[in-house]
Amino acid sequence: MLYLGGVVGPWGYLAAAAAALAALFVPGGRRMEGLEALEYLYRWRRVCVAAAPLRALAAAAMAALAALSVAVFLHPPHLLYAEVQESSAVGNLTFYTVSVVRAVPGGGPPGEGVVVFTEGGKVYMPFLWETAAFLALAVGYTAAAASLVAFWRALGSSAEGVRRALEFYDWARRLLT
Amino acid sequence: MIGRGGFLPDVYVVARILHALMGGPMPRSRLAAVARVNYRRFQEYLQFLVERGYVTDGEVVFLTPKGAEVAAELERLLSEVLGREDPFEKRRM
Fold first, then answer.
1. How confident is residue B1, by pLDDT bands cut at 50, 70 and 90?
2. What tens digit of pLDDT does each residue of A36-91 get?
3. The overall pTM is greater than 0.90
4. Which of A30, A35, A177 would you mutate first to test chain B, the one with the most B CBs within 10 A?
């Protein structure tokens, strides 16, 4: 999406790959005290069951993102938009900002990616369903991957922790009754 | 562990209260904040602890010798479960 917006160049993809790998390998997680940690795990014990599959999913998503980013760096996408005439462009087009215009020629031979239409200082181009689908996929995938990683980090490696939390709960309940 | 009137105390809240009182007597309002429950709920916990002889109630709440024993035992359990000396030290789980 940033590439389409003309904000980042191909090196941005390498940065995205590095960020994806960092999200996987840099230690993180919720920092808690002993009793607080046990309580947290006890309250979320049912959700914590999902920690292992979440970890696998998050790792797969981040690995895919890293691989895709490197692949796109090596083979930048070729964005080609067909030129349309002013008369046919009006009324059936979507407004794009100037930043999009800068991105359009990227990756293709000079002159092949063309901004199609400008009028009154505004820039227009044909609405391509491929573009919309790509943007939707990119946004959805990024959000899903980030959510997976965040959720997994919040739960952490919790199977053992949950077991201990339940153990403490049982002992303490017996003690207090 | 059902108390008076069907009150079902949370072990972790009780542990927080007893641990806090191990540091010395505390005013009710401050103890309620430590317990992290609303004041009405806190009063139920206090009633529960008083009925069992763990604390004495007043403007300031005191831990009784029996309560101190239970609190120490809870800390011991916690240390055992967490496998380290000071269960209230910062750690990552």
1. low
2. 778 888 887 777 777 777 778 878 888 887 888 788 778 765 544 444 444 444 33
3. no
4. A35
Residues B25 and B35: their CA atoms lie apart, in Å, by 14
Contacts of B81 in chain A (CB under 8 A): 38, 164, 167-168, 171
Residue in chain A closest to B18 (alpha carbons) equals: A176
Q: Where are the domains of chain B?
A: 10-23+48-81
Tell me what pLDDT residue A29 has.
55
Check CB contact of B14 with chain A, cutoff 8 Å: yes
> CA-CA distance, B32 to B38, in Å (whole number)?
7
Phi, psi of B26 (to 5 degrees): -135, 145
CA contacts within 13 A on the Cβ side of A57: 16
Are B46 and B28 contacting, i.e. CB atoms less than 8 angstroms apart? yes
* B91 CB within 8 Å of a chain A CB: yes
Query: For A167, which DSSP code?
Result: H
Does A126 have pLDDT greater than 60? no
What ipTM does the predicted assembly reach? 0.72
Query: What are the CA-CA distances from residue A37 to residues A50, B14, B35, B60 (Å)?
Result: 18, 16, 15, 29
Instruction: DSSP for A100-162, please give it.
Output: HHHHTTTTS-TTTS---EEETTEEEEE--HHHHHHHHHHHHHHHHHHHHHHHHHHH-S-HHHH
Q: Is A98 on the interface with B (CB under 8 A)?
A: no
